[in-house]
Amino acid sequence: MSETPPPILVVDDQEKLLRLVVMLMNRIGFPDVEGVTDGLQALERMRERRYALVIADLEMEPMDGIALLREIRADDALMNTPFILTEASFDFEDINVAHQAGADAFILKPFDMAVLKSKLKQVLNGKPRRREAPVAAETSLSMDFPMLGKF
Fold it and tell me: This protein's superkingdom (predicted)?
């Protein structure tokens, strides 16, 4: 008997993209996927229910993906929730800021299914965070984001 896939929360202010991501997640084996259109709604849902993962768009209004991530990491009850940021393009500054805020991974839109599956496996099997021993971004960047290589 296989284990039931964990619940996932998707956050995107573009409703068509939100529905598409929810559908993709269902299609690859995650039947329990909820979608919301803004960061405030996401925080509200997360305080009502425990999610195994949040997938959020970087560019949203009124609360963008980084602000949502910072709120989650600052909340003791939510801080260990794995978090993936999505966007059509990332520049180095986006990646640096998101990494420092505690993002677990990035996925470019449109999603490549193999990359999506790989990132999901990596993030859902990750280790919980410990607030008392933050890891410096410089030392962990190449481990958490192998596509960036060593600095």
Answer: Bacteria
